[in-house]
Amino acid sequence: MSDDSAKRAVLVQPGGAPLTYTILVRGFAAPVAIAGRADRPQVSFDLTLTVTHPGPGFPDDIAAVMSYEDIVEDLRRLCAESEISGADYLADRAAELCLSHAKVRKVQADVTIPAPDSGGPSAGASLTRVRPEQR
How many domains does the chain have? Predict the structure, then answer.
């Protein structure tokens, strides 16, 4: 079977919405330099991405589908930044990074930062972003 990606049409559901699938990134954790904290807490990320389906008979080729590895690399770079303001910033930037990939239609980003002391409450943020429809 040959792959002619240029001729591949986007499949649509009833009502005209593109056919999609879901990628889950669960339990990604990395040390982050949070502004005002001397430690580098292990911040955890959970992402749910709604991604455009490549169509029937797509090849077993990473170029035809969205790779979660691209998202993980983006998260690693984000976590390497210095003086992060907090969970809301991390969730917003994670969502922005996900939507920078053309195949991602929607993302939910959940971020949790543990408390400075082991018994305290953690801080977190959860948000959902959707790619604006192009006409």
Answer: 1
pLDDT value, residue 132: 84
Place of tokens 């499949």: 11
pLDDT confidence of residue 95 = 97
- Give me the phi and psi of 68, to 5 degrees please: -65, -20
Sequence-ordered strand ranges (E) for the chain: 20-31, 42-52, 104-113, 123-130
Domain assignment present for residue 90? The answer is: yes
Our CA angle for 77, 79, 44, nearest 5°, is: 130
Can you tell me the mean pLDDT for 40-63? 81
Instruction: Put the strands of the sheet holding 20-31 in their side by side order.
Output: 20-31, 42-52, 104-113, 123-130
Indicate whether 73 belongs to any domain. yes
Q: Is residue 3 part of a domain?
A: no
Q: CA-to-CA distance for 75 and 73, rounded, in angstroms? A: 5
pLDDT of residue 61: 60
The whole domain housing 112 covers 18-54+62-130
